[in-house]
Design a protein that fits this description.
The protein has 330 residues and is mainly beta. The protein is built from no helices and 30 strands. The protein has 6 domains: 44 residues, Roll (SH3 type barrels); 43 residues, SH3 type barrels; 43 residues, SH3 type barrels, CATH 2.30.30.140; 49 residues, SH3 type barrels (Roll); 43 residues, SH3 type barrels (Roll); 43 residues, SH3 type barrels (Roll). Helix content is 0%, strand content 52%.
């Protein structure tokens, strides 16, 4: 249903924010978009949603005198220009190119998380999407979120508990990329001097390498699951990397890690705070793929029979459909 020229909010993986953009070209199931801030690239339908920047919407905006994004709320709108009020005080008019959206962003009246003490440039170990910890540096701190640029070239916005001080000591079990190759092999740090480490691998090989070529498996740093009723085979909502919750099933559980197969055949290793029981009720607000297509549209559940739901979309359409075609905000 998307066409060339449509205005959308598009995700830029591994960033979990969504940015205003325009579709410029469509090739099969891929969409080439130009973001309002000048970036461009191909995205899938799963990485787009209707552009909805209306009065009352929550977002992050750049102050006129700063480069960092700060939480704000739209209080007025004239054409494409947005009048935003910052949570920390102050208001300004801004174009869409200076804002971004995070699904499930809390209202400013919600309890605030204690400010993080990181400084831009701090060296850290941060949890990548595969649940291993990699070396990187702090790029920015935005409320309870930390933007980390990893030494392997990726970047991500992470909650504070997914970032730790960079402390690698002799005797620590690590995985290293032997001779800077693509594969990781288990071993231990024998000695370390700043950014250089000598690693003895479990197979007897050893080498002097850079710490950026190492990763650490530290499940003790992952959130404690506590008492859980979910088990293998249970239907769940899982938090995907785009910030939405999608239906799926738990394939396996390894204490603090869950392997989730999503209904659209994507898979992910998740921690317990990123899964919840698959529960939907009449009256719930959802995004659903109209007629099983690739695009999600906002609507409300009006009737429900098991995993079959009747959805009234905001644009007036309605249909019987399946829970497997739904995603929800946090």
């Amino acid at each position: 249903m998307w066409n060339t020229g449509n205005r959308v909010l598009a995700n830029r993986p591994p960033d979990d924010f969504w940015y205003p953009a325009t579709i410029r070209h469509i090739k099969d199931d891929r969409y080439f978009v130009i973001y309002d801030d000048g970036e461009d690239g191909f995205v899938s339908a799963k990485q787009m949603m209707p552009l909805n920047l209306e009065v009352g919407a929550r977002l992050f905006a750049q102050r006129a005198s700063a480069t960092e994004y700060q939480p704000a709320e739209i209080i007025d709108k004239q054409g494409d220009d947005l009048h935003v009020a910052f949570d920390a005080g102050g208001m300004q008019w801004t174009p869409p190119a200076k804002v971004r959206v995070q699904p499930g962003m809390p209202h400013k009246s919600s309890p605030q998380v204690q400010e993080l003490s990181w400084t831009i440039g701090d060296r850290v170990l941060a949890c990548w999407f595969d649940l291993f910890w990699y070396t990187g540096a702090i790029l920015s701190v935005e409320g309870s979120q930390v933007k980390v640029v990893f030494d392997h070239g990726g970047f991500a916005h992470l909650p504070g508990h997914h970032v730790h001080a960079l402390e690698l000591m002799p005797g620590l079990a690590v995985q290293g990329r032997w001779r800077a190759g693509p594969e990781f092999y288990p071993g231990k740090i024998d000695r370390i001097d700043g950014e250089i480490a000598h690693v003895v691998y479990d197979d007897g090989d050893e080498e002097t390498t850079l710490i950026r070529l190492l990763r650490v498996e530290r499940d003790d740093w992952l959130p404690d699951p506590g008492e859980q009723e979910l088990g293998t085979g249970d239907r769940v909502f899982g938090l995907f990397f785009d910030g939405f919750w999608y239906p799926g099933i738990i394939l396996s559980i390894d204490h603090k890690r869950l392997h989730v197969l999503f209904d659209d055949n994507d898979q992910a290793k998740l921690t317990w705070e990123k899964v919840k029981p698959l529960e939907l009720s009449v009256g719930d607000r959802i995004f659903c793929r109209w007629k099983g297509g690739e695009f999600y549209f906002a609507g409300e559940i009006k009737r429900k029979k098991g995993e079959r739901i009747f959805v009234n979309y905001d644009d007036g359409r309605e249909e019987w459909t399946s829970v497997r075609l739904v995603r929800v905000e946090g």
